[in-house]
Amino acid sequence: MNEITMKVKADKLIMQALEEDITSEDITTNAVMRERKAGEVALMCKQDGVIAGLKVFERVFTLLDPHTIAEFYVEDGEFVSRSQILGIVKGDIRVLLSGERTALNYLQRMSGIATYTRKMADLLKGTKTKLLDTRKTTPNMRIFEKYAVRVGGGYNHRYNLSDGILLKDNHIGAAGSVKKAVEMAREYAPFVRKIEVETENMDMVKEAVEAGADIIMLDNMTIEEMKEAVQYIDGRAKTECSGNVTRENVEQLVNIGVDYISSGALTHSAPILDLSLKNLHALV
Q: Which of 87, 158, 251, 261 could form a Cys-Cys staple with 72, CB 3.0–4.6 A?
């Protein structure tokens, strides 16, 4: 995540997280640390995984005090191991204590998503199929979670509702048919926008092809149904497989031949990567 994105998109979200945790003061820290004192604390990994979100972790502390310095021994995307020291943070001890939980919350969550994504993406290596995330993200965490997916080796589906056209079952129901929904989308949207249609059976697949959909999502179909659909589509549209895709079942989908596999589990079901700040001490 670059500096411009951080300032434009992430800073206000990080500040909201800090405001949630410090409504008036950090009463515990203020009780034991009455004045500024320089200190240092180590960032320690407590389980194996892929690290993601180091710049966000650092930004928590620098928003509290721009004089805080973080020195990392690893980079986003690297595999880290239990008991490994990933870096140190130096600054006002009060800042290190007050920012600790918020900084770790971001880093643990993002690293957990990157770790889960890497495990799934590795199962697709050697195939043409790309692993996509979804909009099933934690409110106000989307920019961080989708970044973590990319770090883990996955790709981002549309970022939000303004980012692309995806005609799902209820949009099709509102329009009256797949054909009508595609026609209305084509008429309304700029010509540069691709139109994706969610289908649940072969009749919908055929209608989507005939309507000229750019991408056809095969949602919650059986493996045999998806294979039939891919053969029928035959390159006339990009294909995406979706519906309860997890690390446990993604291997079953590899040989279907779809262009994309999307999984909400990347962001809604990934466990955190356990990390901690340890050995805080004053600097002379």
A: 87
To 10 degrees, the CA torsion angle through 79, 82, 86, 92?
Answer: 150
Active site residue 198: yes
Catalytic residue among 168, 236, 238, 247: 168
Could you give the CA distance from residue 275 to residue 178 in angstroms, rounded to a whole number? 48
* Residue range 17-39, pLDDT digits in tens: 999 999 999 999 999 999 999 99
Torsion sign over Cα 35, 100, 53, 77? positive
d(CA 143, CA 44): 25
- Check if 224 is active-site: no
Q: What is the dihedral of CA 247, 78, 273, 140, to 10 degrees?
A: -90
Which pLDDT belongs to residue 134? 97
Conformational region of residue 279, where left means phi above 0, alpha means psi within -120 to 50, and beta covers everything else:
left
Active-site residue flag, 119: no
CA distance 12 to 7: 8
What span, in angstroms and rounded, lies between the C-alpha atoms of 251 and 261? 11
To the query of whether residue 90 is one of the catalytic residues in this protein, the response is no
**Choice among 100, 145, 198, 207 that is catalytic:** 198
Please determine, for residue 154, whether its predicted confidence score (pLDDT) is greater than 90. yes
Tens of pLDDT, residues 124-149: 999 999 999 999 999 999 999 999 99
